[in-house]
Amino acid sequence: MLLVFPQWSKQYGPVITVYLGLQRVVVLVGYETVKEALVDQAEDFSGRAPAPFAYKATKGLLISNGERWRQLRRFTLTTLRDFGMGRKKMESWIQEESKHLVDLLRENQRESIYEIDNVIGQTRSPTMEDRKSLPFTNAVIHEAQRFLDLVPLNVPHYATKDISFKGYIIPKDTVVIPLLHSVLKSVDQWDNPWTFNPNHFLDHNGNFKLNPAFIPFSSGKRACVGESLARMELFLFLVTLLQHFTFSSPGGPESVDISPEFSSLGNIPRRYQLIAAPR
Ligand code: HEM
């Protein structure tokens, strides 16, 4: 098992080499180091580590390299944008889906969030335009993604040639892990990284404040191609649900264990019993 804690960078430096069996793995720790690799030296670090089983199954964008990756990525981004998934179309699709979800839970409706009531009310569907008028809700969603830290190890990258980085040479064929966990839970970037607190994304006046260390989708040339779709879904689903329901837990908030059930390539949340009370 690979255990690299954000605070280790103070002790061991931000570039840590470990061996997983025979495989040399370089772990990049902390916001500055991860950003320097993924953004400032984006081309050097754009390789993807070989995953033989996945490759046999898919040969897909996630695990390909070189020209094949470039073409697949261009194709995927264009497809998401142009063929029926343009922003407006995507938005109305998700609005439809949210309505279905609401219909499913409608028997149990009751209360809501003050901010959403004031800005949108309960009769119309939210749009992405509403996001800037809902700073608290936006902050809650950002904080949920930061706190969950869904892909803590990132998807491993690969040195497709010798890379000169921060005074080190990372040899060709080294697996590189730009550790998202070390950025999303860094004491240098967040007041209380282990506490769920939407104030991490709000200024003193309650305005939304983005922190550049918010990189759950990673960053640079290999960053998640589904980011805008995922963010749109999160916003529209959550706001639609909160327009129509109050959520609570049968045993009260204290009974909820928010630590992940499994934590390896992904932080997988536990199953919860949830009361969706109609408003
Ligand atoms: C909350 C939801 C999501 C999170 C947190 C997430 C996170 C990530 C991360 C961390 C990576 C690796 C980036 C890197 O290697 O530096 C990635 C890659 C990728 N994601 Fe997502 N993702 C999400 C949703 C989606 C969705 C909805 C799609 C599809 C529409 C998608 C498609 C992909 C693809 C194809 C790649 C590989 C890109 C490449 O290798 O060039 N993701 N994602």
At a glance:
With 279 residues, this protein is α+β, with helices and mostly antiparallel strands. Helices cover 36% and strands 14% of the residues. The chain has helices at 8-12, 31-40, 52-57, 66-82, 87-105, 114-119, 135-148, 180-184, 227-244; strands at 15-20, 23-28, 47-48, 157-158, 163-165, 168-170, 175-178, 245-248, 262-263, 267-268, 275-278.
What does this structure look like?
It is a single chain. Residues 105-112 have low confidence and may be disordered. The longest helix is centred in the middle third of the chain and has 19 residues, at 87-105. The protein has 9 helices and 11 strands. The strands form 4 sheets. The chain has a 5-stranded mixed sheet, with helices on one face. Strands 5-6 form a two-stranded antiparallel sheet. Strands 8-11 form a two-stranded antiparallel sheet. Helix 5 packs parallel to helix 9. The protein is an alpha+beta fold. Protoporphyrin IX containing FE (HEM) is lined by residues 48, 61-62, 73, 150-151, 154-155, 157, 216-218, 222-226, 229-230. Protoporphyrin IX containing FE is lined by residues 48, 61-62, 73, 150-151, 154-155, 157, 216-218, 222-226, 229-230. Heme binds at residue 224.
